[in-house]
Amino acid sequence: MKSILKTLIETTKSYPVIDNHAHPLLTAENKASFPLEALFTEAEGDAIKDSVHSLSCFRATAQLGQILGLDEPSWDDIKKTRNQMDYGDLCNLLMRPTRIQCLLLDDGLGGVAEMAEDWTWHRQFNCSVKRIVRIETEAEAILVRMVKESESAPDLLTLANFTQQLHKSLSVSAASEQVVAFKSIACYRTGLNIATWNLQNDLRDSFTSARQKCATDGKIRLAHKPFNDHIIRVALEIAGEHNIPVQFHTGLGDNDISLAFSSPSYLQPIIKACPKTQFVLLHSSYPYTRDAGYLTLVYANVFLDFGEIFPMVSAHGQRAVIRQMLEITPTNKILWSTDGHWFPETYYLGTLQARTALCEVLSELVTCGDLTENQAVKIVQDVLFHNSNRVYNLGLEPNLVHEEK
Protein backbone atom coordinates (compact mmCIF):
# COMPACT_ATOMS: atom_id res chain seq x y z
CA MET A 1 0.00 0.00 0.00
CA LYS A 2 2.86 2.35 0.77
CA SER A 3 4.05 2.50 -2.84
CA ILE A 4 0.50 3.04 -4.09
CA LEU A 5 -0.35 5.74 -1.56
CA LYS A 6 3.05 7.39 -1.35
CA THR A 7 1.73 10.91 -1.95
CA LEU A 8 -0.99 10.55 0.68
CA ILE A 9 1.42 9.16 3.24
CA GLU A 10 4.04 11.85 2.65
CA THR A 11 1.47 14.65 2.70
CA THR A 12 -0.10 13.48 5.93
CA LYS A 13 3.31 13.08 7.53
CA SER A 14 4.81 16.43 6.59
CA TYR A 15 2.18 18.99 5.56
CA PRO A 16 2.34 22.14 7.73
CA VAL A 17 -0.51 22.54 10.19
CA ILE A 18 -2.56 25.26 11.81
CA ASP A 19 -3.35 24.33 15.40
CA ASN A 20 -6.73 26.04 15.78
CA HIS A 21 -7.07 25.57 19.53
CA ALA A 22 -4.39 25.27 22.21
CA HIS A 23 -3.19 26.79 25.47
CA PRO A 24 0.15 28.14 26.73
CA LEU A 25 2.94 25.96 28.09
CA LEU A 26 3.97 26.17 31.72
CA THR A 27 6.99 28.23 32.67
CA ALA A 28 10.20 26.39 33.52
CA GLU A 29 9.62 27.13 37.20
CA ASN A 30 6.22 25.47 37.06
CA LYS A 31 6.96 22.57 34.72
CA ALA A 32 6.24 20.04 37.48
CA SER A 33 3.26 21.84 39.01
CA PHE A 34 0.76 19.44 37.46
CA PRO A 35 0.90 15.67 37.03
CA LEU A 36 2.09 14.61 33.59
CA GLU A 37 -0.77 12.11 33.55
CA ALA A 38 -2.95 15.07 32.54
CA LEU A 39 -1.84 14.10 29.03
CA PHE A 40 -4.45 11.34 29.12
CA THR A 41 -7.19 12.62 31.36
CA GLU A 42 -8.74 15.74 32.86
CA ALA A 43 -9.64 13.79 35.98
CA GLU A 44 -8.58 15.01 39.39
CA GLY A 45 -7.59 13.36 42.66
CA ASP A 46 -7.31 9.59 42.81
CA ALA A 47 -8.99 9.15 39.42
CA ILE A 48 -5.95 10.55 37.59
CA LYS A 49 -3.84 7.62 38.80
CA ASP A 50 -5.90 5.19 36.76
CA SER A 51 -4.90 6.85 33.48
CA VAL A 52 -1.51 5.13 33.47
CA HIS A 53 -3.34 1.85 32.89
CA SER A 54 -5.01 3.11 29.69
CA LEU A 55 -4.13 2.20 26.12
CA SER A 56 -3.49 5.91 25.58
CA CYS A 57 -0.71 5.89 28.17
CA PHE A 58 0.83 2.65 26.90
CA ARG A 59 1.06 4.08 23.38
CA ALA A 60 2.34 7.50 24.46
CA THR A 61 5.01 5.89 26.63
CA ALA A 62 6.45 4.12 23.60
CA GLN A 63 6.23 7.23 21.38
CA LEU A 64 7.84 9.52 23.93
CA GLY A 65 10.46 6.92 24.70
CA GLN A 66 11.47 6.90 21.06
CA ILE A 67 12.06 10.64 20.81
CA LEU A 68 13.74 10.70 24.25
CA GLY A 69 16.09 7.89 23.20
CA LEU A 70 14.84 5.34 25.72
CA ASP A 71 14.62 1.61 25.05
CA GLU A 72 11.33 0.05 26.20
CA PRO A 73 10.73 2.65 28.92
CA SER A 74 8.15 2.56 31.66
CA TRP A 75 5.93 5.57 32.30
CA ASP A 76 8.09 6.39 35.32
CA ASP A 77 11.16 6.33 33.04
CA ILE A 78 9.52 8.91 30.80
CA LYS A 79 8.74 11.22 33.71
CA LYS A 80 12.18 10.91 35.23
CA THR A 81 13.99 11.58 31.95
CA ARG A 82 11.95 14.62 30.93
CA ASN A 83 12.13 16.13 34.43
CA GLN A 84 15.92 15.90 34.36
CA MET A 85 16.19 17.69 31.02
CA ASP A 86 16.71 21.41 30.57
CA TYR A 87 13.21 22.78 30.02
CA GLY A 88 14.16 24.75 26.93
CA ASP A 89 15.76 21.68 25.38
CA LEU A 90 12.68 19.61 26.19
CA CYS A 91 10.34 22.15 24.59
CA ASN A 92 12.45 22.42 21.46
CA LEU A 93 12.83 18.65 21.14
CA LEU A 94 9.08 18.12 21.24
CA MET A 95 7.79 21.26 19.49
CA ARG A 96 10.07 21.42 16.46
CA PRO A 97 8.91 18.16 14.81
CA THR A 98 5.24 19.16 14.91
CA ARG A 99 5.47 21.46 11.87
CA ILE A 100 2.90 23.78 13.45
CA GLN A 101 3.00 26.88 11.26
CA CYS A 102 0.39 28.85 13.19
CA LEU A 103 -0.82 28.46 16.75
CA LEU A 104 -4.12 29.85 18.04
CA LEU A 105 -3.90 30.17 21.82
CA ASP A 106 -6.65 30.46 24.40
CA ASP A 107 -4.67 32.06 27.23
CA GLY A 108 -7.63 32.46 29.57
CA LEU A 109 -7.23 29.30 31.64
CA GLY A 110 -8.59 30.26 35.02
CA GLY A 111 -6.31 29.88 38.03
CA VAL A 112 -3.19 28.86 36.12
CA ALA A 113 -2.49 31.85 33.86
CA GLU A 114 0.24 33.11 36.17
CA MET A 115 1.98 29.71 35.93
CA ALA A 116 2.14 29.68 32.14
CA GLU A 117 4.18 31.51 29.55
CA ASP A 118 2.75 34.55 27.77
CA TRP A 119 1.15 33.74 24.43
CA THR A 120 3.84 35.67 22.52
CA TRP A 121 6.56 33.46 24.06
CA HIS A 122 5.48 30.58 21.82
CA ARG A 123 6.67 32.34 18.67
CA GLN A 124 10.13 30.95 19.31
CA PHE A 125 9.01 27.65 17.80
CA ASN A 126 9.05 29.10 14.28
CA CYS A 127 5.30 29.63 14.20
CA SER A 128 3.00 32.60 14.14
CA VAL A 129 0.76 32.92 17.19
CA LYS A 130 -2.71 34.48 17.54
CA ARG A 131 -5.01 34.84 20.54
CA ILE A 132 -8.38 33.33 21.33
CA VAL A 133 -10.28 35.40 23.91
CA ARG A 134 -12.23 33.42 26.50
CA ILE A 135 -15.63 35.04 26.95
CA GLU A 136 -16.31 34.02 30.53
CA THR A 137 -12.86 35.13 31.69
CA GLU A 138 -13.41 38.60 30.23
CA ALA A 139 -16.85 38.83 31.82
CA GLU A 140 -15.55 37.78 35.23
CA ALA A 141 -12.79 40.39 35.14
CA ILE A 142 -15.31 43.11 34.28
CA LEU A 143 -17.68 42.11 37.07
CA VAL A 144 -14.88 41.97 39.67
CA ARG A 145 -13.73 45.44 38.63
CA MET A 146 -17.26 46.84 38.73
CA VAL A 147 -17.90 45.44 42.21
CA LYS A 148 -14.70 47.08 43.49
CA GLU A 149 -15.59 50.40 41.87
CA SER A 150 -19.13 50.25 43.28
CA GLU A 151 -17.79 50.91 46.76
CA SER A 152 -17.58 54.55 45.75
CA ALA A 153 -20.23 54.54 43.00
CA PRO A 154 -22.92 51.92 43.83
CA ASP A 155 -25.38 53.27 41.25
CA LEU A 156 -23.09 52.08 38.45
CA LEU A 157 -23.35 48.41 39.44
CA THR A 158 -26.20 47.57 37.07
CA LEU A 159 -26.82 44.94 34.42
CA ALA A 160 -27.05 47.64 31.76
CA ASN A 161 -23.65 49.06 32.72
CA PHE A 162 -22.11 45.60 32.83
CA THR A 163 -23.47 44.79 29.38
CA GLN A 164 -22.10 48.05 28.01
CA GLN A 165 -18.63 47.37 29.41
CA LEU A 166 -18.65 43.77 28.18
CA HIS A 167 -19.70 44.90 24.71
CA LYS A 168 -16.91 47.46 24.63
CA SER A 169 -14.24 45.03 25.85
CA LEU A 170 -15.18 42.24 23.43
CA SER A 171 -15.50 44.69 20.53
CA VAL A 172 -11.96 45.93 21.14
CA SER A 173 -10.70 42.35 21.21
CA ALA A 174 -12.61 41.39 18.06
CA ALA A 175 -11.11 44.33 16.18
CA SER A 176 -7.55 43.45 17.22
CA GLU A 177 -5.27 41.91 14.59
CA GLN A 178 -3.94 39.58 17.28
CA VAL A 179 -7.34 38.08 18.14
CA VAL A 180 -8.88 35.57 15.74
CA ALA A 181 -11.70 34.03 17.78
CA PHE A 182 -13.73 33.99 20.97
CA LYS A 183 -14.21 30.88 23.08
CA SER A 184 -16.92 29.88 25.52
CA ILE A 185 -16.72 27.35 28.33
CA ALA A 186 -20.48 27.32 28.87
CA CYS A 187 -20.20 23.55 28.79
CA TYR A 188 -18.31 23.70 32.10
CA ARG A 189 -20.50 26.30 33.74
CA THR A 190 -24.19 25.90 32.91
CA GLY A 191 -24.32 23.51 29.95
CA LEU A 192 -24.67 23.97 26.21
CA ASN A 193 -28.44 24.47 26.34
CA ILE A 194 -27.94 28.21 25.88
CA ALA A 195 -31.20 30.15 25.86
CA THR A 196 -31.88 32.41 22.88
CA TRP A 197 -33.58 34.88 25.26
CA ASN A 198 -34.41 35.34 28.94
CA LEU A 199 -37.19 37.04 30.84
CA GLN A 200 -35.85 40.36 32.13
CA ASN A 201 -36.75 39.56 35.72
CA ASP A 202 -34.86 36.25 35.55
CA LEU A 203 -31.86 37.95 34.00
CA ARG A 204 -31.77 40.73 36.59
CA ASP A 205 -32.11 38.22 39.43
CA SER A 206 -29.28 36.13 38.00
CA PHE A 207 -27.05 39.20 37.65
CA THR A 208 -27.84 40.22 41.22
CA SER A 209 -26.91 36.77 42.49
CA ALA A 210 -23.58 36.87 40.63
CA ARG A 211 -22.89 40.40 41.83
CA GLN A 212 -23.53 39.48 45.46
CA LYS A 213 -21.37 36.37 45.21
CA CYS A 214 -18.55 38.45 43.76
CA ALA A 215 -18.88 41.08 46.49
CA THR A 216 -18.72 38.40 49.20
CA ASP A 217 -15.79 36.40 47.78
CA GLY A 218 -13.84 39.13 46.02
CA LYS A 219 -13.84 36.96 42.91
CA ILE A 220 -16.36 35.11 40.78
CA ARG A 221 -16.74 31.88 38.84
CA LEU A 222 -19.72 32.69 36.66
CA ALA A 223 -22.23 29.84 36.78
CA HIS A 224 -25.52 31.75 36.91
CA LYS A 225 -27.43 30.47 33.92
CA PRO A 226 -29.57 33.39 32.68
CA PHE A 227 -26.64 35.77 33.22
CA ASN A 228 -24.16 33.40 31.57
CA ASP A 229 -26.45 32.92 28.59
CA HIS A 230 -26.78 36.69 28.27
CA ILE A 231 -22.99 37.06 28.20
CA ILE A 232 -22.68 34.49 25.43
CA ARG A 233 -25.39 36.15 23.36
CA VAL A 234 -23.53 39.45 23.57
CA ALA A 235 -20.34 37.76 22.42
CA LEU A 236 -22.08 35.94 19.55
CA GLU A 237 -23.51 39.22 18.28
CA ILE A 238 -20.11 40.94 18.34
CA ALA A 239 -18.38 37.96 16.71
CA GLY A 240 -20.90 38.00 13.88
CA GLU A 241 -20.38 41.72 13.32
CA HIS A 242 -16.58 41.30 13.18
CA ASN A 243 -16.56 38.00 11.26
CA ILE A 244 -14.62 36.00 13.82
CA PRO A 245 -15.67 32.50 14.97
CA VAL A 246 -16.77 31.51 18.45
CA GLN A 247 -15.33 28.24 19.73
CA PHE A 248 -17.34 26.12 22.15
CA HIS A 249 -15.97 23.42 24.40
CA THR A 250 -18.10 20.38 23.61
CA GLY A 251 -17.88 16.83 24.89
CA LEU A 252 -14.63 15.61 26.41
CA GLY A 253 -13.65 17.39 29.64
CA ASP A 254 -13.17 16.89 33.36
CA ASN A 255 -15.68 16.00 36.08
CA ASP A 256 -16.75 19.64 36.24
CA ILE A 257 -18.96 19.28 33.17
CA SER A 258 -22.38 17.73 33.04
CA LEU A 259 -21.74 15.11 30.38
CA ALA A 260 -25.41 15.01 29.44
CA PHE A 261 -25.38 18.74 28.60
CA SER A 262 -22.03 18.68 26.77
CA SER A 263 -23.56 17.40 23.53
CA PRO A 264 -23.40 20.05 20.78
CA SER A 265 -26.98 19.18 19.88
CA TYR A 266 -28.03 21.51 22.70
CA LEU A 267 -26.52 24.41 20.74
CA GLN A 268 -28.97 24.00 17.87
CA PRO A 269 -31.41 26.77 18.91
CA ILE A 270 -28.66 29.37 19.42
CA ILE A 271 -26.97 28.31 16.15
CA LYS A 272 -30.24 28.91 14.32
CA ALA A 273 -30.70 32.24 16.10
CA CYS A 274 -27.22 33.51 15.08
CA PRO A 275 -26.79 32.62 11.38
CA LYS A 276 -24.13 35.32 10.85
CA THR A 277 -21.85 33.91 13.57
CA GLN A 278 -19.54 30.96 12.95
CA PHE A 279 -19.57 28.21 15.59
CA VAL A 280 -16.56 25.91 16.06
CA LEU A 281 -17.35 22.75 18.02
CA LEU A 282 -14.19 21.75 19.86
CA HIS A 283 -12.64 18.43 20.92
CA SER A 284 -14.39 16.22 18.34
CA SER A 285 -17.44 16.69 20.60
CA TYR A 286 -16.40 13.29 21.96
CA PRO A 287 -18.42 11.13 22.56
CA TYR A 288 -21.00 13.08 20.53
CA THR A 289 -19.08 13.26 17.25
CA ARG A 290 -22.04 12.24 15.10
CA ASP A 291 -24.21 14.95 16.69
CA ALA A 292 -21.57 17.53 15.78
CA GLY A 293 -21.23 16.20 12.25
CA TYR A 294 -24.96 16.54 11.74
CA LEU A 295 -24.84 20.20 12.75
CA THR A 296 -22.01 20.92 10.31
CA LEU A 297 -24.06 19.39 7.52
CA VAL A 298 -27.28 21.32 8.04
CA TYR A 299 -25.92 24.72 9.15
CA ALA A 300 -23.54 26.77 7.03
CA ASN A 301 -22.08 28.47 10.10
CA VAL A 302 -20.95 25.34 12.01
CA PHE A 303 -17.49 23.72 11.93
CA LEU A 304 -16.04 20.71 13.73
CA ASP A 305 -12.61 20.55 15.35
CA PHE A 306 -11.10 17.09 15.81
CA GLY A 307 -8.77 17.74 18.70
CA GLU A 308 -8.06 16.62 22.26
CA ILE A 309 -8.73 12.97 21.38
CA PHE A 310 -4.97 12.96 20.67
CA PRO A 311 -3.61 11.52 22.96
CA MET A 312 -6.57 11.10 25.36
CA VAL A 313 -8.29 8.41 23.30
CA SER A 314 -6.73 5.10 22.22
CA ALA A 315 -5.48 4.67 18.65
CA HIS A 316 -8.47 2.59 17.54
CA GLY A 317 -10.77 5.10 19.26
CA GLN A 318 -9.13 7.97 17.37
CA ARG A 319 -9.69 6.20 14.07
CA ALA A 320 -13.31 5.54 15.05
CA VAL A 321 -13.87 9.23 15.80
CA ILE A 322 -12.43 10.28 12.44
CA ARG A 323 -14.59 7.70 10.67
CA GLN A 324 -17.69 9.01 12.46
CA MET A 325 -16.71 12.56 11.59
CA LEU A 326 -16.32 11.69 7.91
CA GLU A 327 -19.67 9.87 7.76
CA ILE A 328 -21.49 13.15 7.25
CA THR A 329 -19.29 16.19 7.95
CA PRO A 330 -18.33 18.20 4.83
CA THR A 331 -14.55 18.01 4.62
CA ASN A 332 -14.24 21.77 4.08
CA LYS A 333 -15.70 22.26 7.57
CA ILE A 334 -13.24 20.09 9.54
CA LEU A 335 -10.52 21.81 11.58
CA TRP A 336 -7.72 20.30 13.64
CA SER A 337 -6.08 21.11 16.97
CA THR A 338 -3.86 19.64 19.66
CA ASP A 339 -5.61 21.29 22.59
CA GLY A 340 -1.98 21.49 23.69
CA HIS A 341 -1.54 22.82 27.21
CA TRP A 342 0.97 22.93 30.04
CA PHE A 343 3.34 20.28 28.65
CA PRO A 344 5.17 20.23 25.29
CA GLU A 345 4.30 16.52 25.15
CA THR A 346 0.68 17.48 24.45
CA TYR A 347 1.73 19.23 21.25
CA TYR A 348 4.10 16.47 20.15
CA LEU A 349 1.73 13.57 20.77
CA GLY A 350 -1.28 15.51 19.51
CA THR A 351 0.37 16.19 16.18
CA LEU A 352 2.03 12.80 15.72
CA GLN A 353 -1.08 10.81 16.56
CA ALA A 354 -3.44 13.00 14.53
CA ARG A 355 -1.29 12.62 11.42
CA THR A 356 -1.11 8.85 11.92
CA ALA A 357 -4.84 8.34 12.49
CA LEU A 358 -5.83 10.60 9.61
CA CYS A 359 -3.50 8.76 7.24
CA GLU A 360 -4.76 5.34 8.32
CA VAL A 361 -8.44 6.21 7.90
CA LEU A 362 -8.01 7.95 4.56
CA SER A 363 -5.83 5.11 3.27
CA GLU A 364 -8.64 2.69 4.07
CA LEU A 365 -11.12 4.86 2.18
CA VAL A 366 -8.87 5.05 -0.86
CA THR A 367 -8.19 1.31 -0.80
CA CYS A 368 -11.90 0.46 -0.73
CA GLY A 369 -12.66 2.94 -3.51
CA ASP A 370 -14.56 5.60 -1.56
CA LEU A 371 -11.91 8.23 -2.41
CA THR A 372 -9.20 8.73 -4.97
CA GLU A 373 -5.74 9.39 -3.61
CA ASN A 374 -5.88 12.95 -4.96
CA GLN A 375 -9.11 13.57 -3.07
CA ALA A 376 -7.61 12.14 0.11
CA VAL A 377 -4.52 14.33 -0.24
CA LYS A 378 -6.72 17.42 -0.61
CA ILE A 379 -8.67 16.45 2.51
CA VAL A 380 -5.41 16.22 4.46
CA GLN A 381 -4.25 19.62 3.25
CA ASP A 382 -7.63 21.20 3.99
CA VAL A 383 -8.24 19.80 7.48
CA LEU A 384 -4.68 20.38 8.66
CA PHE A 385 -4.20 23.84 7.19
CA HIS A 386 -6.49 25.45 4.63
CA ASN A 387 -9.84 25.20 6.43
CA SER A 388 -8.53 26.96 9.54
CA ASN A 389 -6.69 29.46 7.36
CA ARG A 390 -10.02 30.39 5.77
CA VAL A 391 -12.28 30.25 8.85
CA TYR A 392 -9.96 32.41 11.00
CA ASN A 393 -9.04 34.79 8.15
CA LEU A 394 -5.31 34.15 8.69
CA GLY A 395 -4.15 34.84 5.13
CA LEU A 396 -1.27 32.34 5.31
CA GLU A 397 0.48 30.30 2.64
CA PRO A 398 1.63 26.81 3.68
CA ASN A 399 5.34 26.73 4.40
CA LEU A 400 6.27 23.67 2.36
CA VAL A 401 9.63 22.15 3.20
CA HIS A 402 10.72 19.09 1.31
CA GLU A 403 12.75 16.73 3.42
CA GLU A 404 15.93 15.31 1.97
CA LYS A 405 15.73 11.65 1.02
CATH topology of the domain at 6-30 and 51-132 and 245-391: TIM Barrel
Radius of gyration, CA atoms, in whole angstroms: 22 Å
CATH architecture of the domain at 6-30 and 51-132 and 245-391: Alpha-Beta Barrel
From the spread of the alpha carbons, the general shape counts as: globular
Number of strands: 8
CATH secondary-structure class of the domain at 6-30 and 51-132 and 245-391? Alpha Beta
- Strand content is 5-15%
**Amino-to-carboxy terminus distance:** 20 Å
Classify the secondary structure makeup into a structural class: alpha/beta
Average pLDDT for all residues: 94
How would you sum up the major sheet?
8 strands, parallel
Estimated helix fraction: 40-55%
Low-pLDDT residue spans: none
Cross-sheet strand order for the largest sheet:
1-2-3-4-5-6-7-8
Count of individual helical segments: 15
Order of helices and strands: HEHHHEEHHEHHHEHEHEHHEHH
Q: Could you give me the name of the CATH homologous superfamily of the domain at 6-30 and 51-132 and 245-391?
A: Metal-dependent hydrolases
Can you characterise this structure?
The structure is a single chain. The chain is an alpha/beta fold and 405 residues long. It has a domain at 6-30 and 51-132 and 245-391: TIM Barrel. It has 15 helices and eight strands. The chain has helices spanning 6-14, 55-68, 75-84, 87-95, 135-149, 159-175, 186-189, 200-217, 225-242, 268-273, 289-298, 309-312, 315-328, 344-367, 373-391, and strands at 17-22, 100-106, 128-134, 179-184, 246-248, 279-281, 302-306, 334-336. An eight-stranded parallel beta sheet has the order 1-2-3-4-5-6-7-8. Helix 11 links the parallel strand 6 (279-281) and strand 7. The radius of gyration is 22 Å and the shape is globular. The mean pLDDT is 94.
